[in-house]
């Protein structure tokens, strides 16, 4: 962190000038850069990771995004967007907290999001999509007529459970699917535009301002020293969320934010953009919002935090989920099924006001040999980006102690009891009774307690037995900077911080509920808007830096 006390030789020397500076090359940054370029701006796109090992959440993702049918009913789409973003047009909804510009935000979504697929295809004629879903909240206003649609990215034309998240990172573009395909398409768009210069290995540290308080650039750390990237027209923050920022996790997330949560995206998302904007007086909103459910984590650490893994074994047959005492508390299918799958983390956050503890942090996925042998219970390909080798049959994870095992359920209960995160709460009798009752439901084909879908019911009875701790968490955070419908970053008086824009998960519009594909959808739609509005600004009259970081140099 740059401070006043930092030695002078570490402070900015080189200067690069562009019309628009974009911070972070994920989906939002790439789309913002392209749009700014196409609206007449030269662009410096800063990415803190080196080019050869760059992996953003965008690249790790499933590559699915919202792209409503352009022929759908626009008023219905506005209503549906409003319900998703703030819920304020739903009965009994008291959470909507952006009423001052929610109409404009929904209008912007209705204008931009139906263009998403065409925009991507326009970047690269080889890029393809397949349709995967419609409106996930069928009871929301507008759901029926909005023409809502979610599409997935591919260069092969394929999209199925087997190929989803296949590692195609090093493969030729034509073999790429999912997030790799999405990223390759945006990268193609960026590389085909001469006016966009990508600066890899360049970590933005401070926003630079002039005497008027306008944001006129970024101070960045590079392998060869500090560089000032001056922006004549504007700066766009697209540096992702705070998944791997310990302080922000403790400050923003409900419950034990550091040890009690886990995320499975890129470890490069350390909340840098949030910190930089906050230093300039940016307002925060809904900081605790995430796209998440409950997932397992391994004790391998980055930035002092456990690494999460997408635990898709939850909700499959021969598996159930219990709290720290051994009791079920929900249908396991709700955890991994649309649309509730990215909101379920809220269920795990229940706080017991008598014992003053979180009975569901962690929760425990209990499964048997049948599921263990059926294939990985986590998404191994996504884990490999973070250098976590789980193995194809889960046995590596068992050997490493990431998965607990027991020849009997009694032995497994003892192992859970001794796990430090269980804090000796597991009750053997409760777990045995829970599993026995669950197995009876499986035999009867009906879950009398939580109505889990019959097709997913399979008994937990074949030894050995296994357990994995599950924490609230998921792919990414969504809360962060408060921005208006033009993607201008607002201060605590709701006034725009001049020339500062933002898009992507650092400032997500999805503050109420979340359907998968929303994040990438807004990377395109709102990334483009941010880039467009930044490019449209007249040149700043004064590029003299006046804030502290530069005075030090
Ligand atoms: C495994 C997985 C699957 C997912 N699947 C989907 C899906 O199918 N559909 C969907 O909509 N969403 C999905 N998501 C979520 C989605 O991928 C992200 O929310 C979205 O990609 C965020 O895009 P972004 O551009 O905001 O951030 P990112 O794509 O994470 O990009 C941020 C970039 O900023 C860089 N950066 C950070 N700090 C700095 C700095 N100081 N200076 C310079 N650069 C910096 C980072 O290195 C990174 O490259 C998934 C996420 C994961 C992890």
Set down the secondary structure blueprint.
Layout: E1 14-23, H1 27-38, E2 43-46, H2 57-60, E3 64-66, H3 74-85, H4 102-112, H5 116-123, E4 128-133, E5 150-154, H6 178-191, E6 196-199, E7 202-209, E8 215-222, E9 225-237, H7 246-252, E10 262-263, H8 272-279, E11 284-285, E12 290-302, E13 305-309, E14 319-322, H9 332-336, H10 345-348, E15 363-368, H11 369-373, H12 380-385, H13 395-399, E16 404-406, H14 409-418, H15 428-444, E17 465-477, E18 480-481, E19 488-490, E20 496-502, H16 518-536, H17 548-551
The chain binds flavin-adenine dinucleotide.
Residues 23-29, 46-49, 56-58, 60-65, 203-204, 238-240, 264-266, 268-269, 272, 310, 382, 475-476, 504-506, 516-521, 523 line the site of flavin-adenine dinucleotide (FAD).
Outline the structure in words.
With 553 residues, this protein is α+β, with helices and mostly antiparallel strands. 27% of the residues lie in helices and 22% in strands. The protein has 17 helices and 20 strands. Strands 1, 2, 6, 7, 8, 9, 19 and 20 form an eight-stranded mixed β-sheet that branches. A hairpin with a 5-residue loop joins strand 19 (488-490) and strand 20 (496-502). Helix 1 packs parallel to helix 6, helix 1 runs parallel beside helix 16 and helix 14 (409-418) packs across helix 15. The longest helix has 19 residues, at 518-536. It starts with 13 loop residues before the first strand and ends with a helix. The model is unreliable at 1-9 (pLDDT under 50).
